[in-house]
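[step 3/7] fold_predict: job queued, chain A
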Amino acid sequence: MAASSHGEIFIEIRKLRKKLRQIENLERVDRDLTEEEETKISRKQNIRETLLSLLQEVNTEEDDEILNQSQDTLSANGEESFVSLQDDVEPSEDSTAVTDGTEYGAGDAMEQKRSESNLKRRSEETIQSVRAVDTAAGSVPDKTTCTTDSVPSKKSKTAAQSSQVPIATGLGQNHAEEQTLHKLRKNWRRTSFAVRFLEGHNDLIYSVDADKDLLLSGGRDTMVKLWNTESCREVRSYGGHTGTVTAVVLLSEEESKKLGETYQLSDTDRLGISGSLDCAIRLWSLDTGVTVRSMYTYNPVTCLGYMYEARLIVSASGGGKLELWNVETGDQVQSVMAHEDAVTCIKIANQRIYTASADGVVKIYGMRDTTLHLIFESENVRSTTGAEVTWRHIRSLATANQKIYYGDDGVNIKVLTWRNGMVSKLRNHTGEFGTTDAIIVSDDMLYCSGYDLDNGLGYINVRHLPQEQYLTTINDNDTSRITCLACTKTRKGAIRFITGGMELKVWEKVPPGYETSSEDAEIILSQYNPKYAGTPTNSDMDSDLSDSDSEVIDPRLRSHRRPSSDSEKAGGWLSWCSVI
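[step 4/7] structure written:
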């Protein structure tokens, strides 16, 4: 491909991606669209088809060039590209047990290098990509694998009888840790999930919360709904909000029982909380469908949290305000201007309130006698690689082990060790562009949603904590952007996910070979993609596709803000916090 022609195609690809991002934002606007905006949205499929066609054209012509370099590199290194690690050989459970593994051939190494910025780096990383394949991690993708990823070649019979793992897998880990990770990889590799669609909402779902067999959801249709995830049936619908329901919280059985005494409810009643752009917070009796308490905030509610010990509802607004409410009296306890832009995330853990905003700032608040005080602010954090931390509006947040995991419009998960102000990254997308709208931590596992802008598909990546090691990807190739995520367990103790977006789905882990009697359930297999276990890419290249470059932004978010020159000149991160 001529250089000029190649450059023109990449310019066109970038333009098409910008159009797709603008359409994505239009689809989330909380108002009636104009005729012109409706026309733009109607062109979404045609734009995506054109984009994929151009990407295929570029990839096909790059294949020949990279393949030659890959073959030369592989020939020079030969079999030294693979190392067998005896500790990771799977124990045979019977005489027919064979370790499932996958090797990457030259074509797969070529595919993994396609997104690198120059040919020299591609050549250097060819060896690493070949070494990055392991039995515990690799598996032969089936039809559920994203069509934009390359399909690894099957192992030969001889190679399949030994375990191949990445050289980096065992480094710096003791034997016990490696054994634990090995068992996890084995359990998660090609795990079966029964996927069911919950029909009831007629618009975008913004929030879900689950406990055992119960699921609470809220969305742009202004409705709050209660579901039974065992039967996948709607239990009750709650009307009362006049604007988009942006946040829901399902209180525990124990807390519901205690508060039920205050509101004279039955011992078996459950309570749920909802927040909306109509500026209202409602406390619901889920059994009766009655609003037992309503609070008016004078600000559109963007997210909610609940502090169990203090019995306080924590709400946040599009104007950056953080407010505390007494759940028993409905009185406002405190109100602070927490952020200069819209608050997009609230997470409560260990009596601390973790918040994130559209300006890319993360803060931690502590409680002293029902009074908030700032512990940490992230404006002067530093990257572990020395690179500048790109400021984008934050869409999701979770916390574990003194770390904050957050997602934005970049391709990586950001990992903030807040006590030293350092930020590292975990790869969450295989392409150059993506969005992470939902992150949760449950039982030492990190679950992150991902969204491929190019093909319009959403998925869930699974990692183990505290090592943060990638285990698998859950994808049915039929789910669009995942805006919210919840995790619970079935009565038998199996993992159950709930994803919300344009679809509301239940993903239940089932035994191998499981056959469902339900016509509305699809059985899929999770897939290991070694790209997610690789070194995170520099996602600064897609910063010009942020919302500030789009015609329309999420209605809950205002303009983006970068730190002022004065704040940049301030001292280290300690100048912004006091540690209790």
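[step 5/7] annotate
The radius of gyration is 24 Å.
The CA atoms of residues 22 and 550 lie 5 Å apart.
exit 0
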